[in-house]
Amino acid sequence: MNCEIAIVGGGIVGLATGLAIVTRKPGTTVCVLEKEQTLGSHQTGNNSGVIHSGLYYKPGSAKALTCVEGARRMVEFCKEYGIAHDICGKIVVATTVAELPALAELFRRGKANAVAGIEEIGPERIREIEPHAAGIRALWVPSTGIVDYVAVAQKYAELITVKGGSVFTGTKVLSIRRDSNGEEIIATTTNEFRAKTLINCAGLHSDRVARLSGAKPDAKIVPFRGQYYQLKPAAQRLVKGLIYPVPDARFPFLGVHFTRMVSGGVEAGPNAVLALKREGYADYAFDARDAFESLTYPGFWRMAAKYWRVGISETLRSFSKTAFVRALQKLVPEIKGDDIESFGAGVRAQALLNDGSLVDDFKIVRDEHAVHVLNAPSPAATASLAIGERIADLLN
Predict the structure, then answer these.
(1) For residue 38, what is the domain's CATH number?
(2) Domain count of the chain?
(3) What CATH number corresponds to the domain at position 325?
(4) What is the pTM of this model?
(5) Do 232 and 159 fall within a single domain?
(6) What's CA 357's distance to the chain center, in Å?
(7) 326 and 231 in one domain?
(8) What is the pLDDT of residues 284-332, one digit of tens each?
(9) Same domain, 345 and 374
(10) Which domain holds residue 6?
(11) pLDDT-based confidence at 252, cuts 50/70/90?
(12) Are 242 and 208 contained in the same domain?
């Protein structure tokens, strides 16, 4: 099958990119290739469902710029197409004096990123917003919301087809080669696709797809598994909206937190530990190839040497419900072990450099025949419409 642009990956970023292209350039033939039978099966459908405000990100970074714009546009999109969402706001809580400088830095970043309505609050205001939360100071971020990202992704796909594009599920890419005319020949489990341009939005497998196409990415995807719990119905009264800790600035992870879900209920988590399978959502999931690639990558061991204390703490929370509950109790002291139950897991596709550095910003690389999205973890879902348009701009 011939097309002008082939997009590998039917997650929210790949679909947003396809939508941006067919909207901006009507008549362009776009094919989105998704290996699963359903769209948004991985990072899109296994996250907290938060519409992030842009609070955490370094001013001027791609994350900051696309998140603030993307959040606004995500809300507009959901309103236009009747997708369930709620701008419920969140608080980021400092529970010790030692966390106050980091909280102040978050406030500075939020202001620099033009996050709407952000304010620093004290204990009395904390109790007004979240009566059961602990904290000596906090940031109130009223522009943060929650949404069903799978529903968003499905609507993107619907609009792509309405505008003349095509979305293929159950279509796993097996090989990619370039012919003498400079076209990409993409062999899949269902068909062969010929495209002038390849866009790699393969998420957990983005580095592998890049290498299949002949690129040599300088980062490897190292997957991190995040386990979630949910509050039992009787305990859901303890959380009104979203309650977050002050994150460790050295890491792109936000710490275990409470999130009210748009479908109802409250989830708690996730932690962040090395996943031994890139799509390892089940406890003790293991894939020999995935584990071998991570554990033989020098960058992983350099990272582990720097941050082993944090790694031990995160791993302990993964294996010990008691340790997980202790982390939650820092935010909501009334939480007890009997108040929570297991609620699945997500796997984050985190790009890691050979020197052990975690890639903090989005990483999108353009070469002569392809665009590779090599790092697009949170807040990529929030920012998806803005990211899709940025990728579309690279094709000009």
Answers:
(1) 3.50.50.60
(2) 3
(3) 3.30.9
(4) 0.95
(5) no
(6) 18
(7) yes
(8) 899 999 999 999 999 999 999 988 888 888 888 888 999 999 999 999 9
(9) no
(10) 2-45+150-218+361-394
(11) low
(12) no
Amino acid symbol at 87: I
- Name the nearest CA neighbour of 274 among 253, 243, 246, 247: 253
Task: State the Cα–Cα distance between residues 196 and 350, nearest whole angstrom.
Answer: 29
Between the alpha carbon of residue 348 and those of residues 21, 185, 324, 386, the distances in Å are 26, 29, 19, 20
Helices (H), 163-225: 206-212
Instruction: Give me the long-range contacts of 123-128 (CB less than 8 A, separation at least 24).
Output: 126/91, 126/93
Tokens representing 255 are 């710490």
Asked if residue 237 and residue 213 are part of one domain, the reply reads no
My answer on whether omega of the bond before 233 falls inside 30° of 0, hence cis, is: no
The count of C-alpha atoms lying within 13 angstroms of the C-alpha of 204, restricted to the half-sphere facing its C-beta, is 26
DSSP 22-61: HHHSTT--EEEE-SSSSTT-SGGGSS--EE--S-SSPTTS
Rounded to whole angstroms, the Cα distance separating 9 from 148 reads: 19
In this structure, the answer to whether residues 224 and 208 fall within a common structural domain is no
Mean pLDDT estimate for the chain: 95
Instruction: Using alpha carbons, select from 112, 140, 114 the residue that is nearest to residue 126.
Output: 140
- Find where tokens 């067919």 sit: 22
348, 367: one domain: no
